[in-house]
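Students often ask what a holo structure prediction actually looks like on paper. The answer is less mysterious than it sounds. You provide the chain, you provide the ligand, and the output is a string of discrete structure tokens encoding the 3D arrangement of the protein together with zinc ion.
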Amino acid sequence: MRVEWSNWLSAAKMLLAPAHPVCLFCGKAHAPSAQTPGICLACESAIPWIKAPRCRTCGRPVGCPDCSRSRQPGPLLYNRSAVSYTSEMREILGQYKYRGNERLAQVLGLMLDRAYNAMQEAMENGSVSRWSYTANQNAVLEADSGLIMGAASPHKIWSSLLPRKRTDRWQADLLVPVPVSSTRLAERGFNQAGQLAAVLAARRGILQLPLLVRTQHTAKQSFKSRAERLADMKHAFAASTDSALQGQFASLLRNSLDSGRPLRIVIVDDIYTTGSTLRACAEALIRQPGGSLEGKVEICSLTWARS
Ligand SMILES: [Zn+2]
Ligand SMILES: [Zn+2]
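The corresponding structure tokens follow.
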């Protein structure tokens, strides 16, 4: 009798205890995280956040030979990522991208939003790159252990990277998702970069415009050499010729230039691997149908994971 009574008691306790929502990461009904709604406290505490990027160009948390090796000037100023691409994070991204668990978009978008905070802080305290101004006010990039990608028009671009007061928070003007090919879009049913950017756009009140298109389906990359892949990637993206989009973009650009600074564009993607996709996107954005935007825009990228 005694045993039955205690069983009954524990069953009653379970019924009366507040039910936890099912965590979107581990699938268990654990105490939820307040920081990242949708996942549990345990999963939240296991996220491999990139809190202090060692490489200030690509946002990597460890020493980075890539950025020091390929230091050609390019329009992509730097990248920041929310997390390290560990096997656990790869599994989560797989559930979202390939197994169609679209509810994860909101969680991953919120994680990206945390990286946006880090991006704001980096821009405000000038830790994006080490640089200084000479007496004649020309921006000079100091050799920063080889971690700067360089800028096409240093004076105009770097002048807006000046540290500013905390009251004047750095804010992006425009989010541009990395496009997927129409084949991938048909397979998957959504563009993950667009969905992540949408979460950020809604939280921060930043406009998102799908200004880029894929010009070719970059499949079977694995059969190609690194050089071939890079050459392919250079022409994989182009600025959209949609006139409504172009019109919106032109007025944003005009407003920004009228206020005396370049337009701040953040390219959004799920993952940064070699950076060649993001660099190709930045180059395609610079080459607008109306002419080059060199010196008129400041482009960086925000990705959910850094592999
Ligand atoms: Zn969990
Ligand atoms: Zn790097």
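Confidence is low (pLDDT under 50) at residues 130-160.
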